[in-house]
Amino acid sequence: MSQVLVNGVFLGCLFAVVAVGLTLVYGVMEVPNFAHAGVIVLSAYTTWSASAAGLPFALAALAGIACGALVSVLTEVLAYRWIIDRPAAAPAVALGLMLILQNVALRLYGGEGRSLDTPYDRVLLRLGGVSLSGVKAALVVLAVVSLLALHLLLSRTSLGRAMRAVAQDREAAAILGIPMRRQYALAFLIAGVLGGVAAIAYAPTFQVSPYMADEVLLSAFVVVVLGGLGSVWGAVAGGLVLGVVEGLGSAYLSPAYQSAFGFLLLVSILVLRPGGLRSTNARRVA
Amino acid sequence: MRSRSAAALVAAAVLTATTACGSPSGSPDSDVVKVGAILSLSGIYATLGPAQKNALQMGVEELNRTGFTVGGRKRTLEISYADDRSDAATTGVTALRELVQSQKVPVIAYGLGSDTYVPQLQRQPVPMVNMLDSSYPGILGLSDHLFLTRGASPTYVPGCLYYAKRKLGTTSISVITAKGEPYGEGLTQLVTKSAQAEGVRIAANSEFPLSSTDYSNAISAAVAAKPDAVYLSSVTAVILPVLKQLRQSGYTGPVIHSAGVNPNQAKAILGAQYDSIMKDNYDCAGTLPTTSQDPAAQAFAKDYQQRYDEYPQDLTMWAHDFPFIVAAAMTKADTVSDPAKIEQALKEIDVPQGTVSGWLPGDGGRLFTDRNARTASEVTAWCPGQDTLRSAMVFDVKDDAVVDPTFPQETCG
Asked: What span, in angstroms and rounded, lies between the C-alpha atoms of B135 and B151?
């Protein structure tokens, strides 16, 4: 049981980091940012390339995160910005961007999986009958640190307050003089950084490939809806709930239907609380 | 007036382009014979397609050095490649239609997705030679136009359990399966059957969804049963990440599979720790060119390694031989363009000259028996610290039982 919960918490942290990036962008711009999968892929490949070129893992990871931030901002500047007044076009544009980014990776690096090595690959933490590999422990730590940093940014800084204002009421925020474009870019920048963190933390447990983030993105969207669209803490709670539910379902029913348990949970939550775990009438980033 | 001229020019250009795209690239009786190959060059099966393409290219070049004679004329072979992106149901089917309907190729080599190609084969029959898919139940029952150039899973899986019991002392085994992946699901059925026959207990049978990227739950269930060994059921690109997480979870016992992992793939997918992760790793499948006793296979292995700086898997031998098989069939059929005659000839040819796989001839020396050509099977073991595999057992299977097993000396060096 303890091992199942630990596995669930690991999965939940992964889902939460990816989902928070998605919900942040949705809260500010109302875009279902499927391109986030492409951002994660390019971050992972950048880290892998830098690492293969001989850079220490920490520097390679920073390069990967920087790449994630840059690519994410570019998607906003080059694509989403131009359809802000046409929200119906957003899903199609987002899907198109995802395909473009994944195919860029495919073109540059080929379709074969690559391993991202870390200095803690051989670490194995054991406590009683519970074990957690170093790479998974690192993901949990990175998720907690980055989400705490995001919380501080959103709640304690003027940038964060401005972002929350845009999320609550875009028109009112513009009237108050908040520079909207900067807020959009900032939301994508933060989402990109979180995508980069997810990439460097998650790739060592799996492999780097052009389609490595598809499944995680799908689960992250489940988490976003579970938590309440636009709610950062809803996404964190949703991620952990989804991870643990998938873990328990796998352990006590069948691991073959791990993803199905998540969707079952989603349907149940939508029936009982249509707005998600932290439902609200307004869009928000908090 | 100017706009009319422009319109006429555009119309002419479109017509020319359409005509060019719609017609086959060579005439039906050209000296350069074009055949097709649908391979997984990207996606989750991308560990397979590029190696097959490399070997096909080698085979074509070797064949074309002397050419082959059909209708009294010397011919050379050319392959039109298509990438199914590991998605035979959509991309692969589109590629098949393009090859058959537009390029009008008379025979096609391919890897995966047999069932998805059957409707198209019913509409427009063409012989398709599979160089990879040993899944169980076999593909040959799907269509009379399919040929298989390798031993199916039942010809090598029993060897896994036979070897594990006698050489590793395995009395219980946990099986981890990629749910929704046909090859893996077939392997699991066969492992279960073979384990019963050998008296090896299945300690746990856990599964994970094919699309999954975290296998913690399946691994926990498999390891918690405290098995003597773990069997991983799926293809290389799927089982290597599972193997990595299995070792990361602290499991150090023997791992058995039938994926055909080579050292290059192990390095690429497992990273710097590949050698320790691959330790105590056993792979049962077709004989490898590197471990084969056949001089032709050994020479091919050497050439392949020199040319591509890559360890040749078993599937490279089979892909290398495809051009020779096609040439022999076309020569026997005395046509380079009639799919029906070429298909009939495939059933009648002997093991062709120039092939390197060490085909086991059927009745009367024929290559195919019931549309299946096969080689011997083998268990290979990873050689720690040496980036290579050694042959641990060569065998054949008859009536679900291992026959004629031989245990080569430890030859990691």
From this structure: 10
ipTM of the complex: 0.74
Whether A229 and A276 have beta carbons less than 8 Å apart is answered as yes
CA distance B389 to chain A (A): 21
Interface test with B, best of A18, A258, A259, A264 (most B CBs within 10 A): A258
d(CA B104, CA B36): 9
| Average pLDDT of the residues in A258-270 | 85
Confidence at B22, pLDDT banded by 50, 70, 90: very low
Residue B166 Cα, gap to closest chain A Cα (Å):
31
Q: What is the pTM of this model?
A: 0.78
* Structural domains of chain B ordered from first start: 29-152+313-373 (3.40.50.2300), 157-257+261-291+377-406 (3.40.50.2300)
8 Å CB contact between A64 and A50? yes
| A-B contacts at Cβ under 8 angstroms | 126
Contacts of B243 in chain A (CB under 8 A): none
Radius of gyration of chain A (CA): 18
In angstroms, rounded to a whole number, what is the distance separating the alpha carbons of residues B64 and B76?
5
Cα separation, A264 vs A261, in Å, equals 5
Half-sphere exposure of B21 (CA within 13 A, CB side): 7
Separation between Cα atoms, residue B84 and residue B133, nearest integer Å: 15
What is the amino acid identity at position B16? T
Chain-chain contact of A112 with B268 (C-beta, under 8 angstroms): yes
CA dist B88 to B83, B110, B112, B382, Å?
9, 10, 7, 32
Of A110, A133, A247, the CB nearest to B217: A247
Distance from CA of A80 to the nearest CA of B (A): 28
Q: How many CB atoms are located within 10 Å of the residue A85 CB?
A: 6
A14 touches chain B (CB under 8 A): yes
Of A106, A133, A246, the CB nearest to B42: A106
ω before B352 within 30° of 0 (cis)? no
Rounded Cα distance between B20 and B296, Å, is 42
d(CA B242, nearest CA chain A) in Å = 8
By the 8 A CB rule, do B254 and B230 touch? yes
Cβ–Cβ < 8 Å for A6, A159 = no
Phi and psi at B173, nearest 5°, equal: -145, 140
| pLDDT tens figures, B362-407 | 888 999 999 999 898 999 999 998 888 899 999 999 888 999 899 9
Instruction: Answer yes or no: do A258 and B249 touch at CB < 8 A.
Output: no
